[in-house]
Specification:
single chain; 734 residues; alpha/beta; OB fold (Dihydrolipoamide Acetyltransferase, E2P); 5 domains; eight-stranded mixed beta sheet; 23 helices; 38% helix; flat; disordered C terminus; binds adenosine-5'-diphosphate; binds magnesium ion
């Protein structure tokens, strides 16, 4: 017999295992023995064709986004009630919701202040005699509830109890009337699913529909999507258990299977994308590094170790013929620009041009100034391309790269989106750097990548200061290689952050005035009113007038999205030079702005921003040697939102903040809902299920390694998953 490599052995063992599994799974998980009724259905069957479904009901479900059996079964319950074992009637206020069952003894409808209607339903624990508990369910202005509930009904009630005037009360509980009918086996004495409902489709109605459909579902027609090597549960079994679990344990197993399915779909898309990028043709864009060394020698500070490491990683990529697709990821102020600049020098030295694209004009201008200041002395021609300005550096000592380039061609382009359009004059793009990548859209990145002209794709480096938690990096940027700057440059001033109520504003103003008198500068940030151009301008003007007066006679300036480009330049220049003492601004200053002498930031209505965004904003200060102060003003006294802002008081670690933000608001918001392009997860949770994500990721990689085209029969399920999930366009999106 021919010897096999360990990898081949592994593949064969896997295949044997899988084959065994396919043959025997029916024995291990037999279909339910319950008698089944009606014509059989499969996941593709339209609900209108299910025999028990009245046509209007099917139409209603379709409007609700559930046209087929498959869609209905993927509409998972939002929670479950254990109706095998109700809770005892509570005696005190509690944080946890209880689920109790009782009989209605009395209903009272009262009018209270302001013509409000208050409906009280007194329920008593059944068959518990004198020891039985009682509680009041209370609704305000709920006509439909008033009509539904009457004395003698048995109710299942779910909600948080609160003691009020001697009674235990649950306000606006979720409830169901227990009907004494044949359906009891569906709605009682089991773990009961509570599906997200809509008008006319109550959880009870939906539960009945799902039950009917599951009775007709042909398990053998439900294709297995997750390979058995990842999880052995049959898909049909998992779908059944998700809706009508036999036990909490089975529910957990079913959920695990379906979360893995969801994650695997994502990770297969990532792997496919990665494979596609890897197969593109590129060329080396890496010079010997002499100019880069000169740059580093000219700096007044040493590079951090993290910066050095990132440069080495990028340099290897540049030197290889494989196109680079790398994410440079580091907290605000970690010094990403310098890494990008170094990479661009390596590229220029090899005879190609390099471009840096920034999301705003202010940022592009700042990069332009910065690049010119540092690179012109080294003979590098830097050119600016924004919608507003096109400026080539003229008459400089020329550095001549080794190629046939015309002597006046710029070596480096800095710009905004304008870089993407014709006439930008980039003929030999070797490296494209995208700063604050999360601010750009799909098409823009793709377009810049396509800028090199003849066939070979340029190397691409994307940079972001959004500290992306690990679980998300794997998901969003799974197709990119990642370099992380996990170290801050030495000698940074500390930032003291304080959450403050509006009454404290005068104190803050006094403090800002003394700091300005000592030579410092301040940012005042107010939330953008985005309703209309006119309103926005008005809000800006009002803010500006208010702050000019508060800080008079110190010079203030105004900056927001609608300020015309030339004026923006002038405003930033005056602030940078220290002539303007306070900058009243919207979040246009959120990304990248770098004025080390500014050490104060006051943010109004801080509750209107996300944590990650506040952290970005705060990153504008603490850049010089002076101690910095960030005041978050909020009139919100809601405990939860204060708690949220206090996270910023406690930590300056962007990763910690991003994790908290993600927990509080979900991934969509972290990246900007519209921009993230991530469909909301149906079932999985990026935090709680991080381990499953890792598992799915490793598995997807393995599958692609063994079977890049997904042709093996055991990978048929993966093929379906990939085809059904065009949503995962990933890093191209955000
Ligand atoms: P970001 O990663 O947020 O884009 P920048 O690249 O704007 O950060 O860098 C922030 C500031 O830190 C700049 O003023 C830059 O000159 C400075 N800086 C960069 N690297 C170092 C270093 N190794 N030591 C000290 N200061 C540095
Ligand atoms: Mg930056």
């Amino acid at each position: 017999m021919r010897a096999h490599t360990p990898a081949q052995e592994h593949t064969r063992a896997r295949a044997r295992q899988d084959a065994f599994w396919f043959v025997h799974r029916r024995k291990l998980f037999p279909p339910p023995l319950l008698p089944t009724y009606g014509a059989r259905v499969n996941l593709e069957t339209p609900l209108a064709e299910v025999d028990v479904m009245p046509a209007p009901r099917a139409r209603q479900l379709e409007r609700f986004g559930l046209p087929t059996v498959g869609a209905l079964l993927l509409h998972f319950p939002r929670r479950y009630e254990d109706r095998t074992q109700f809770d005892h009637f509570p005696a005190e206020t509690g944080d946890r919701a209880v689920c109790v069952c009782g009989v209605v003894k009395k209903t009272t409808l009262r009018r209270i202040r302001g013509g409000q209607r208050m409906f009280d339903v007194l329920i008593e624990e059944e068959d518990a005699g004198a020891f039985g508990g009682r509680l009041v369910c209370r609704w305000f202005n709920s006509h439909w509830v008033e009509k539904m509930i009457a004395q003698g009904h048995t109710l299942v009630v779910h909600g948080k109890p609160k003691v009020s005037a001697g009674n235990v009360v649950i306000a606006h509980p979720e409830f169901e009337i227990v009907e004494d009918d044949a359906e009891q086996s569906i709605h009682l004495k089991r773990i009961v699913p509570i599906h997200a409902a809509t008008e006319g489709l109550t959880p009870r109605v939906l539960r009945r529909i799902v039950w009917d459909v599951l009775e007709r579902l042909e398990d053998d027609a439900v294709a297995q999507l997750v390979p058995p090597s990842l999880d052995r549960m049959p898909r049909a079994w998992a779908l059944r258990q998700m809706h009508f679990p036999k036990s909490w344990d089975d529910l957990a197993k079913a959920r695990k299977h379906l979360v893995l399915e969801e994650f695997l779909a994502m990770q297969l898309a990532v792997s496919a994308k990665r494979a596609e990028l890897k197969s593109e043709r590129g060329e080396p864009h890496c010079g010997p590094g002499e100019i880069m060394r000169q740059l580093h020698a000219s700096l007044p500070f040493p590079l951090t170790r993290a910066q050095q490491r990132a440069i080495v990683e990028i340099r290897d990529d540049l030197a290889s013929t494989r196109p680079m697709n790398r994410l440079l990821h580091g907290d605000v102020g970690s010094g990403k620009t310098l890494v990008a600049m170094s990479a661009m020098l390596l590229c220029v030295e090899s005879g190609f041009q390099a471009a840096l694209m920034a999301p705003t004009q202010i940022l592009a201008e700042q990069h332009f100034l910065n690049f010119r200041r540092l690179l012109e002395p080294l003979g590098i021609r830097v050119s600016l391309r924004t919608g507003a300005r096109r400026e080539d550096a003229a008459d400089m000592p020329l550095f001549s790269p080794q190629s046939e380039s015309a002597d006046s061609d710029p070596h480096i382009f800095i710009g905004t989106h304008a870089l993407l359009y014709e006439g930008a004059g980039i003929s030999r793009m070797g490296l494209a750097v995208i700063d604050e990548q999360h601010k750009f859209g799909v098409m823009q990145r793709a377009r810049l990548q396509g800028k090199s002209g003849e066939g070979a794709v340029p190397d691409v480096l994307v940079m972001t200061a959004t500290p992306i938690p690990r679980t998300l990096t794997m998901t969003l940027y799974g197709d990119l290689d990642v370099s992380t700057l996990d170290e801050m440059p030495a000698g940074r001033g500390r930032i003291v952050t304080l959450v403050r109520p509006p009454e404290k504003l005068p104190d803050a103003v006094k403090f800002i005035r003394t700091q300005i008198e000592e030579g410092r500068q301040a940012y005042i940030v107010y939330p953008l009113v985005e309703e209309s151009e006119r309103l926005e301008a008005k809000a800006a003007t009002a803010e500006f007038a208010k702050w000019s007066e508060l800080l008079a006679p110190m010079k203030c300036a105004l900056l927001h999205g609608r300020v015309p480009p030339e004026e923006k330049d002038a405003v930033m220049a005056a602030f940078r030079s220290g002539e303007t003492k306070a900058l009243i601004a919207t979040t246009v200053i959120e990304v990248g702005v770098d004025v080390p002498n500014a050490n104060i930031m006051l943010i109004e209505n801080a509750e209107m921003f996300g944590l990650a965004q506040l952290h970005q904003l705060r990153g504008r200060i603490g850049r010089g040697a002076h101690k910095s102060y960030c005041a978050l003003f909020t009139s919100d006294d809601d405990a939860e939102s204060l708690e949220k802002l206090r996270i910023l008081e406690k930590t300056g670690d962007g990763f910690e903040i991003a994790e908290a933000d993600l927990r509080l608001r979900g991934p969509g918001d972290l990246l900007g809902t519209a921009q993230s392009g991530l469909a909301p997860l149906r079932l999985g949770d990026l935090f709680k299920d991080a381990d499953l994500m890792k598992l799915a990721r490793n598995h997807a990689f393995l599958i692609f390694e063994r079977d890049p085209k997904l042709e093996l029969p055991e990978n048929a399920g993966c093929r379906t998953l990939l085809a059904d999930n065009p949503r995962a366009i990933l890093s191209q999106v955000s």
